[in-house]
Structure formats: C-alpha cells, structure tokens
C-alpha cells in the first residue's frame, strides 16, 4: 500500500472543507486533478473515504477514522525536516553521558544545568559507571561523553579538565586529629585506623592516596570503593579516610574534613570523548563549556 503526501493533503483539504471547489482553491489547483487524487487514494486504501453527489460532500465512517491519521502524517512530514535540521545543529537529539559516583555530587549538577540552558531539547541519558566502564562504552559507541578520572588514552580519546580539587582527610568530628588546627601529615597517621580504597575497584584514588601520604597498610581496617561508603564509615567512627574536597557536599553528619600537608597531586575529573565524535549535541556542549571558562 503506497500513497503520496499530495494525496493525503488533497484528502485532508476536502475532508475539512467538505467542498471540492473550496478544497481546490485552498490547494491552488483545479477540481479534476483533485478528484483524481482522492480516487487514487481510495483505491490504494481499499475503501471509500468520501461520499459525494451533486448536493453534498461527506466523510464515510472510514473516512472520519482515516482523517485523524492523515493529519498526523502531514504534521510528521512537516516536522521531520525541522527535527533533522535541529539535530544537525545540536539543538535536539540524545546525549549519552557516563559519570562516576563522585562526579554525581561535584560537577554533574553544573553540567546538567548547562545542558538545560544551552540545549533544552536534547534528551540526556545518564549512566553511572566507573572510569574503566566508561572508556569501554565510549570505545564501543555506547556513550557520547564520560566524566572520568585519569589516566586518559589520548591516542583514542580527547579530554577536557573539568575539576581539580584537593585530597583531604575525613575524620570523625571528635577525633584528636580534628583538634590539630593545622594540615595533617603522614606522621600524624602512624597509629590511626584507616579506611582505604580498593586497589582494583578504585585504582585512581588508591594511587593518589599513596602518592600523597606514606600509607601504613597495617593500619587499614576497611577497604571500599565508593566515597559515600567511606565517609559513612568515618561518621560511624571506624577510622579516617582520604576523600576529595567535594565530598563535603555529601553533608554526612559527624565528619570533619581536614587539609593534608605536603600534598603533591590534586584530584582530577575530566570530560572525555572518542576522537572523531560527530554528535552535534556533544559539540555544542563542548562549545558552551569553552565559553564558561
């Protein structure tokens, strides 16, 4: 079954005017070709859509039902080119973003605010993944953008630094270290129970911690991978933990965040995307981020 948009337009005009002469004027054509368009449409559909005689024009029951779908077809045909042009300009479409749990309480909110302001009609598909999973998803084309930790394979991915913040020590608010009134050194932690990152599931933070502080692994009482879990254990008095400065935004009661002495490396979060990425919405987002700097 194949009918043309011209046939649909002719039918809608006659159905709305209920007069072939008026419908022909509306379409800037004469009545004979208009009648032929309706006849071809009815032949294709296989039922009579319009009853006509010398006195009146009326829709059949089938014609009334067909009119609803015919109008939708016309709207869709008019909308489709507009949608395609908007997607090409990055004003519509879908942007698939991967994010780490920690970025969820740091930069993700401001990034979504930028998207809402600059690309309000772009649908956002958010996926919480660790950096390794994001890299795989980006490589497979399942993600457009990742919010991930270093190191970054610059042969295959482009990146932009979104956040650089201090590594801090989270301690119970009544802990003796909280009364030092100075940055905490490695010597201060010699006999202190430590909640540490998993070297496999949270490798970035594990490496960062041991680069910044001389860790005594005999002091490690818990090994976890999520910052929220770590801070919650600190609040429960189970030990102290190294966390990014933005962890303060979690607002976990009973925890104090202290500066570290002689810190050499900041905690970094990057936007990363596959080289050659052509999603117009992503390109518009990156341009918007450029203008914020």
Automatic annotation (TrEMBL):
Source taxon at top rank: Bacteria
Boundaries of every HTH lysR-type domain copy: 3-60
Keywords on record: DNA-binding, Transcription, Transcription regulation
This protein's GO CC annotations: protein-DNA complex
GO terms of molecular function: DNA binding; DNA-binding transcription factor activity
Annotated signal sequence range: none
Classification via SUPFAM superfamilies: Periplasmic binding protein-like II, Winged helix' DNA-binding domain
InterPro entries listed in its UniProt record: LysR_HTH_N (IPR000847), LysR_subst-bd (IPR005119), WH-like_DNA-bd_sf (IPR036388), WH_DNA-bd_sf (IPR036390)
PROSITE patterns noted in UniProt: HTH_LYSR
Family: Belongs to the LysR transcriptional regulatory family.
Name recorded for this polypeptide: DNA-binding transcriptional LysR family regulator
Species of the source: Nesterenkonia xinjiangensis
């Amino acid at each position: 079954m194949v009918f043309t948009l011209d046939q649909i337009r002719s039918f809608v005009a006659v159905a709305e005017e209920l007069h072939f002469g008026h419908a022909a004027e509306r379409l800037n054509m004469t009545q004979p070709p208009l009648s032929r368009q309706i006849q071809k449409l009815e032949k294709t559909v296989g039922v009579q859509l319009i009853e006509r005689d010398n006195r009146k024009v009326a829709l059949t029951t089938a014609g009334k039902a067909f009119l609803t779908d015919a109008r939708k077809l016309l709207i869709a045909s008019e909308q489709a080119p507009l949608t395609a042009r908007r997607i090409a300009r990055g004003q519509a479409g879908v942007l698939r973003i991967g994010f780490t749990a920690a970025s969820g309480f740091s930069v993700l909110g401001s990034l979504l605010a930028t998207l809402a302001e600059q690309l309000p009609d772009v649908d956002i598909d958010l996926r919480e993944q660790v950096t390794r999973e994001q890299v795989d998803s980006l490589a497979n084309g399942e993600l457009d953008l990742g919010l991930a930790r270093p190191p970054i394979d610059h042969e295959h991915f482009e990146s932009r630094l979104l956040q650089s913040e201090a590594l801090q020590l989270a301690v119970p608010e009544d802990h003796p270290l909280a009364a030092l009134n100075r940055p905490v050194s490695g010597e201060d932690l010699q006999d202190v129970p430590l909640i540490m990152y998993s070297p496999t599931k949270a490798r970035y933070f594990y490496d960062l911690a041991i680069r910044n502080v001389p860790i005594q692994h005999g002091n490690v009482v818990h090994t976890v991978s999520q910052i929220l879990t770590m801070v919650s254990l600190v609040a429960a008095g189970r030990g102290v933990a190294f966390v990014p400065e933005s962890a303060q935004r979690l607002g976990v009661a009973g925890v104090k965040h202290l500066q570290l002495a002689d810190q050499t490396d900041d905690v970094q979060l990057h936007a990363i995307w596959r080289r050659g990425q052509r999603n117009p919405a992503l390109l518009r987002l990156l341009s918007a981020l450029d203008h914020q700097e």
